[in-house]
Amino acid sequence: MIIRWLVLTLLLVIAPLRAAAQPVEVLWLGHSTTRLTSVSGKVILIDPFLTRNPVTPPEYRDLNAVGDVDLILVTHGHQDHVSDLLELSRLTGAKILANYEFARNLVALGLVDENSVISMNKGGAVEPLGRGVKIHMVHADHSSSLDYNILGIRSPDANASVRQGGGAGVPVGFVIEMENGFTIYHTGDTAVFGDMALIRELYAPDLALVCIGGFFTMGPTEAAYAVRELIKPKAVIPIHYGTFPVLNRTPAEMKDALGDTDIEMLDVVPGQAILFEGSSPVR
Ligand SMILES: [Zn+2]
After folding, report:
1. 175-220 pLDDT, tens per residue?
2. Where does the pLDDT of residue 162 fall: very low under 50, low under 70, confident under 90, or very high at 90 and above?
């Protein structure tokens, strides 16, 4: 009897620990779109641009193929970051976490209901998936807008708050701390800025997903400087390149610009998942 009780107790203690041991999965789906799966299986989708994204693998252009999503993060309102936002939120029931004005205006325009958004701002942190996964909204040096066609708004005059200049607010990046401490920095679209060093000092990201395509954002030279001198992660995944002819910079240029460094550049193709055990990619 005592042995049965001991075995049962051990199972109850060990089973959740074992379940919590799954690696963090980072699945880049092309451009800025990234799916993160936490150690306890929580799914975060950043910047949903899938059905019209030229570099998304065909199997992921069907939004149902993205699977369950618990939370959608929006870095800014440009169409190459939100074109599947509303549909994916409807399909999955996932809340949309975005800059205050962008999120509030989605509600004001009647596109989503009050309970479907988390409207926050830079400097803040939330744990909307329960304790363990913490999301910090951080600075990005870019622009933002509400794209009426993409969001299905026929009349830009539909709502006073939009007319009065609330618009899409400001662009942001995100730092996501997983349950096991593994920390990911997604830059969103940005120029390089000196306070990326502050992001490192505060959050020490293990992995950085960094835009390198140039023209609208950092190119490889600036991105390599940001990674090497300011963010100093253990690993970096280049994103936001190759989608359109104008984004013609490459990971090879990034690798060259990084030079001799301990920071590992993971040159992944859209649809290729990387697993992280602790803070290291699984080989
Ligand atoms: Zn973009």
Report:
1. 999 999 999 999 999 999 999 999 999 999 999 999 999 999 999 9
2. low
Ligand 1 mean position, distance from CA 172 (Å): 12
What CATH number does residue 110 fall under?
3.60.15.10
CA of 139 to the centre of ligand 1 (A): 15
Residues with CB under 5 A from ligand 1 (ion): 80, 189
How far apart, in whole angstroms, are the C-alpha atoms of residue 157 and residue 134?
36
The answer as to whether 109 is a domain residue is: yes
Residue 174 near residue 138, CB atoms below 8 Å? yes
Q: Provide the domain limits for residue 234.
A: 23-271
Token output for 44: 């975060």
What separation in Å is there between the alpha carbon of 218 and the centre of ligand 1? 11
Rounded distance from Cα 263 to ligand 1 centre (Å): 25
How close is the Cα of 28 to the center of ligand 1, in Å?
15
